[in-house]
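Weekly sync notes, structure subgroup
Attendees: PM, AL, DS (notes)

Item 1: joint prediction request from the bench team. They want all two components modeled as one assembly rather than separately. Inputs as received:
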Amino acid sequence: MMRLLSGLIAGALFGAGLALSGMVDPARVLGFLDIAGIAQGTWDPTLAFVMAGALAVATPGYWLARRRAKPMFEPAFQVPGKGVVDRRLTLGAVMFGLGWGLVGFCPGPALAALGSGRTEVLIFAAAMAAGMWLFGRVAR
Amino acid sequence: MCFVAAWEYRLPVMTSFDPLTALLGGALIGLAAALAVLFNGRVAGISGILGGILDLDRANMPWRLAFLIGLVGAGAVMLARPEATIEITGSTPLLIAGGLLVGFGTRLGSGCTSGHGVCGLARGSKRSLVSTAIYMGVAVATLFVVRHVIGG
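Output from the run, pasted for the record:
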């Protein structure tokens, strides 16, 4: 029960943070990614401040977690260990960057924006889920 | 001093750049990531969570579904405010192509902006640092080409 409740709370905080910071709005994300805007005075630094705020809280959280033998509500940590940088990691990041730069949605905001009821969000989220499903079928 | 009843307080909606609201929103995301690892020992990576659900990974299904319901539900509540708007400019084929690339790419690369960008950087992972640098750089370059080379 606590496992589910803590999952629900973490998800809700995550969604509220994305919506509050405007990251559910692709136009705002693209406003950050458009570096030509720096010279034109139209650049939107929001995403950098969202990342800074997130890391300021998540970093001490992970530091605390590292000092514990196990998490509060589950028997073991499921955090990945140290891996190597390989072709899958880099190629995946390139594909993700392409899609992100084209639309301005990454996975979290695309799901948190579903409640807007906008058809465009549904189309993007369905295509994203299809891409993930496809990966599970062909590349595993 | 100004006293505002709790039910009269409305969370701000950002229309122009507002550093404090951006930091506060980011802090909520960071808090979610911290709680996920401290309570459940899990990475709050959205592509991993949705991908795991689609892969029908039964052992981790309940927590992942609970997280997803919270994420979508909180987003819906926040977006129900009439002043909260989102602007999507892409055509349907572009949305589909972008979605497929984001979905496949984040699974192949083991993470997205949340898993690598927030959780990975917070725990000092070299893989996450490399991933974040690549997808940021590629996204910036892609948008530059689309907006200022092709569209210019």
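Discussion: Chain A is about 70% helix and 0% strand.
Action: AL to compare against the crosslinking data before next sync.
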